[in-house]
Amino acid sequence: MRRRRAAAAALLVTSLAAAVTGCGGGGAAQGSNDNPTTLTYWASNQGADLEADKAILTPELEKFEERTGIHVELEVVPWSDLLNRILAATASGEGPDVLNIGNTWSASLQATGALLPWTEENFERIGGRDRFLDAAVASAGAPGQDPAAVPLYSLSYALYYNKAMFEEAGIEQPPATWDEFVEVGKRLTGDGRYGFGLEGSNLSNNIHQAYVLARQHGGDFFDESGEPTFTDPGAVEGVKQWIDFMAEDGIVAPGNAEYAQNQSLQDFATGKTAMLLWQAAGTTFESFGMSEDDYGVAPVPTPSGTPGQGTEVNSMVAGINLAVFDNTDNLDGALEFVEFMTSDEEQAVLNAAYGSIPAVESAQDDPAFDTPALNVLKDALATSAVPLPQVPEESQFETAVGTAIKDLFAEAAAGREVTTELVAERLTEAQQQVG
Amino acid sequence: MTTTVSPRTTAPAGGKLPPAGGGSRRRPLLPERVRRGGLPYLLLLPALLLEVLIHLAPMAVGVWMSFRELTQFFINNWSAAPFAGLDNFRVAVDVNAPVGEALLNSFLVTCAFTILSVGASWLIGTAAAILMQDTFRGRGLLRATFLIPYALPVYAAVITWSFMLQRDNGLVNHVIVDQLGLTDDRPFWLLGGNSFVALLVVATWKSWPFAFLIVTAGLQSIPQESYEAAAIDGAGMWRRVRHITLPSLRPVNQVLVLVLFLWTFNDFNTPYVLFSEAAPEAADLVSIHIYQSSFATWNFGSGSAMSVLLLLFLLLVTAVYLLLTNRRRES
């Protein structure tokens, strides 16, 4: 009897322990130069898979070692793990020296104080702040503070369209306004094919699109003091417009509501949908067997048809930033490495390999970036892209509002009406969660 | 518990064996009583230390965190996080505010899910084990087949389910809609209300082989003569199960149901792989809800408070369960 009870108790403790998680470490140390010959680098997954990234980065890191004698330990971290890994590293103080971050996380990570602030002095050591695109630097931390990272790869959204399907439907030009977009979308919808495709369960993508649409309606999700304003009328309109492509206009297949793993790219490449809003989708289309001649690339539509600033923005500033952990034990080496990665030469090599755009203006002159598709992305970045809110709560915003939009797509897909009131209600709940 | 008896020939410190036969014994360093009683504890010590290190220490840290305002502003230096008193708990249990309301909803979903999943797993597992009791051709093969879901890595198994449950290209809808024609609409399984059913099916599919395995093992200890005697008395299959099998399995079932309950209630992998970052409301299990409340919103104090509440609830349920089942057996 006693034995059984003790066994049960041991079992119980073991099982319960799974319910409670703990973190280790804590305590922030300042950077030093105790370990000048090695660096650890966490790269984000930019290529087709982790191995592709290793193949692209390794020769460049060897080049760096040849020049400086510093050996770089590379680890490519998948996107699904990256933020959690960074949080764990922040909490434990055991992290890499240099790392890639999604640029929308910049302000949230900046608030933790774990990343090296890019003061004028630090910027000088890598060639100065002016070398970088303004829009890209604006997405590296909260306004008025020293950026928490420097831009590495830049991207923006474009409208991809299937040339053959457009021709078949007698459409000569890609739509420039949203009215045209919906009209064209309806003409392309039918016989099991749809005018437009999206990823309804992909939280980040929902946020990217809804944010730009909200700005086009004169709204925003945060006010100037950084307080959440999710129920701002413009924000509600923006979210509703994004849902309405499925709910009201019917140009999106209901099944897209559960897409989250780039299924919409596959649908586009296999001719099931005629239009897509995406960033640098070329290599993925190719992997699904679609050749470059089969699709066209145009600016994302705006209310008036002419992209610009204010209510005519047509993309968020997408991209990857490079950050240095504040407690690095090779500060000089880390700065040298950032200088190397943002040099004109490396910017050209790496961005060409990944299909992105250099965050350094002078590197954009390289002929590799003078293709029709990349010129559309470059123009948007230079003139009509807007960074996502650079506030500490950005990460919570993406989760809460992204989930609300996912749920609204589920409603729309089930054939229920999505009213302005319903959208406002869901956004109110989301705002209460962010607190 | 302490029934192990240390053999009298245990070598004292120094490793010398006592002289064989007749010779006078050396005085042991420790009195016989302490040595006898102490050895089991000594042997248990490494396990105990590891237990404290691996399980209890993180739990203690979790409890500490639940009383702190551990948000993104403090994770870099979390010993400096301000004391929050009971604030985190107050927010978690205030069911009139959104955070508490969502937690309550998640808790109720988890309770319903656990009861149904454990019930179904136990029923299927026990039925299968009883049917596999008699020898017949192919029994070994069938038994091995039944254990496959339990042997597969969780991620691989559940991601396969998530492909099968896709609305447009999934196997499940292909069978239901295209082949059997049961409905005209293609239902969503990973969104909305159906997601509860999907989660339940996948979780049960994954856990019933464990029930099967444990019950099969338990059946081995029931003497065959009892069945033979019952058969001579004219008892049919059902009566034999009711009057011999189930009562004999009671101690096994007691542990089995408890373990299944705790595993199912705490299940994180299945919903996380099935629904990725944002589980639908109907399938928002409490473990994934807590994950969202800490990792997605970077409020580890609040997430820890919810974990502590969950821990207290599970402790309570387990204590009551053990008390009730023991009393019933003793009476």
Automatic annotation (TrEMBL), chain A:
It comes from the Bacteria. Residues 1-19 form the signal peptide. The keyword Ubl conjugation does not apply. The keyword Oxidoreductase does not apply. It holds the Pfam family SBP_bac_1. CDD domains: PBP2_TMBP_like. InterPro entries: Bact_solute-bd_prot1, SBP. Keywords: Signal, Sugar transport, Transport. This is Multiple sugar transport system substrate-binding protein.
UniProtKB/TrEMBL annotation, chain B:
Gene3D superfamilies: MetI-like (1.10.3720.10). It comes from the Bacteria. Residues 1-29 are annotated as: Disordered. InterPro entries: ABC_transporter_permease (IPR051393), MetI-like (IPR000515), MetI-like_sf (IPR035906). Signal peptide: none annotated. GO terms for cellular component: plasma membrane. Residues 107-321 form the ABC transmembrane type-1 domain. It is a multi-pass membrane protein. It is found in: Cell membrane. CDD domains: TM_PBP2. Keywords: Cell membrane, Membrane, Sugar transport, Transmembrane, Transmembrane helix, Transport. PROSITE patterns: ABC_TM1. One of its GO terms (biological process) is transmembrane transport. The keyword Transmembrane helix applies. Its main location: membrane. The chain crosses the membrane at residues 41-67, 107-132, 144-164, 247-265, 304-324. The keyword Transmembrane helix applies. Belongs to the binding-protein-dependent transport system permease family. PANTHER family: ABC TRANSPORTER PERMEASE PROTEIN, INNER MEMBRANE ABC TRANSPORTER PERMEASE PROTEIN YCJO. This is Multiple sugar transport system permease protein. It comes from Allostreptomyces psammosilenae.
